[in-house]
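Possible regression after last week's pipeline update?

I re-ran a chain I had predicted before the update to compare outputs. Posting the input and the new output here so someone can diff against the archived version. Not blocking, just want to make sure nothing changed silently.
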Amino acid sequence: VEKRAPFRSDHLALANEYLERGEIEMAGAFADPVDGAAFVFTVEDRARVEAFVAADPYVANGLVSSWRIKPWTVVIGGD
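New output (post-update):
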């Protein structure tokens, strides 16, 4: 968690850009242990998610070394 501090504001700024454009629905770190995070993107184009990953300071600075992009189907909610 401490390693994130120098990059946190830039990471959150990037996420907020996507949020303001309606491309992220929600995001956050897993709790206890803080060993990952989940982002729910609202885009049809996988390239938009890949662009986020490429620009993310946590990825660029080696804090995140692996990730998965998985399409999913909303069954409940999402109205």
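Follow-up from reviewer: compared with the archived run. The mean pLDDT is 94. Marking as no regression found.
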